[in-house]
Amino acid sequence: MLMKILSLQDCCWPQRQANSHKGQHGSLAIIGGDEGFLGAALLAARAGLLAGAGRTYLAFLHQQAPQIDIDFPELMMRSPAQVFALNPLDSLAIGPGMGQSSHAKQLLTQALSSNIPLVLDADALNIIAKAHQDGDETLMHLMQQRSAHHVITPHVGEAARLMGCDTQQVQSQCSQIAIDLAQRYHAVCILKGAQSVIADPNGQCVTNPTGNAGLASGGTGDVLCGVVASLIAQGLSAWQASTTGCFIHGLAADQLLAQGIGPIGMRASEVALQIRRILNHHE
């Protein structure tokens, strides 16, 4: 399959007027972070803030989670129930560090039943895959019937579980698998890998050339999730946010590598900060 390779010219940059205010740059919320996995949701929320969302909310599942992020006090802590009551809410990312409890599944069901644009990541995808394996098609049907757009961000293992195949098949047929996932789940699919593939339900499919082995570390996927959700909150379409988010996520890693930061020991937090520099340079 001959696919288009993304370039910088394909990216869409959120516009910011000198006299604008926070309400014009979108409201973003992240739901995730059960016990032992708070960092995943924190990284996604911080990345969303750094990528330009006007308001960023964070809802942990863990009952004993902190009520403030000392390093990023701009993040507004809410309960999951409070997140769903927000109006307006322009984008919601759900899944990072969420776990697969019955409570997590209930929140995912509520998200899929809403008209909020979604980014479904990590455990949100694992919950959907497990439900399908158990013969429960409720979540899949909710995805197929949604009018608001949504993005799924599986890595190879998650894609294999969603498709009911093995990882070797995903790796050998990544373009076709990305299209199949997009069509099955009525979503823009970012199939993450050494060269991520982005596909939509209409069969449009592109590959992302940026990125390096420094991204093979914990938390970088959470950063990508937060950036894509933030770009959607700022008015980009699911396709624009996915292609732009992937490209600049990998570009940030490439620029850090050129500075001597990585590939060994490159941190997801550093990638998020570099993404902010890229967005400001091109804005």
Could you please describe the fold and organization of this structure?
- This protein has 283 residues and is an alpha/beta fold.
- It is built from eleven helices and ten strands.
- A hairpin with a 5-residue loop joins strand 8 and strand 9 (197-199).
- The longest helix has 21 residues, at 238-258.
- The two termini are 34 Å apart.
User: How would you state the average pLDDT, rounded?
Assistant: 96
Question: What is the rounded distance between the termini?
Answer: 34 Å
Q: What structural class do you assign from the helix and strand content?
A: alpha/beta
Q: What is the number of helices?
A: 11
Lateral strand order in the biggest sheet: 1-10-9-8-7-6-5-2-3-4
Biggest beta sheet summary: 10 strands, mixed
Estimated helix fraction? 40-55%
N-to-C series of helices and strands: EEHEEHEHEHHEHHHEEEHHH
- Rg calc: 17 Å
Q: Any low-confidence stretches, pLDDT <50, length ≥5?
A: none
The rough form would be described as: globular
Q: How many β-strands, per DSSP? A: 10
Which range does the strand content fall in?
Answer: 5-15%
